[in-house]
Design brief:
Beta-Lactamase, Arc Repressor Mutant, subunit A
Length: about 230
Amino acid sequence: MTAGTETSRTQRAREDALRGLAASATRNIPGVDFVSITIHDEDDGFRTVAASDPLAEQLDALQYDLREGPCYAAVTDERFVLANDLAAASDFPRYRTRAADLGVGSQAAIQLLHNGERAGLNLYARGTGAFDRSTVQLAELFATHAAAVLEYAVQVEQLSEALHTRTDIGTAVGIVMERYGVDRDRAFAFLVRNSNDRNVKIRVLAQQVIAGAFQTTSREDRRSRDWP
């Protein structure tokens, strides 16, 4: 299995867990009709990774486009945003009219984490005045759980990446050992030297060696055979 396949599986698992969380939040938080979860990455990109209803995705996308709304505010600035009468929310003059036209009367958003990227739990209700103190309390609980899911997924992805890096480099070292008749230390030194000379990450170089795409010059071949 390739590293890309493993990372994709991890991402799918994370997004499946978050979709389940969004569905559970819809069922259990008082006043909520549908829920979504937004990721705001460090490159200032926005995406919806889970939604319990297509309308939530549509409303999220509208806020990303307008750069305005509770969803947008929660992942860019505010910790918690509540608009119990969205049509009258002066903080969102462009979004509020569009949201009302789509049938949303109340909206809340809570920031989940800030670790290179921010995430937000977005709560939507069709009626006005839909959210009360119990909504806020349960939203905090769900936000804590969603943040834990995201953090765990990041850790799994990092571990998976590290394991695959080690495997790729080890495989490439074995290929270099066989090709040049050198020991493990010299084979690894060969990879490091070429990584530095070509300004390429050692794992990328290792993958090229494994794929047979790595080509040495005659000078590099001579250097490999003349190692002390």
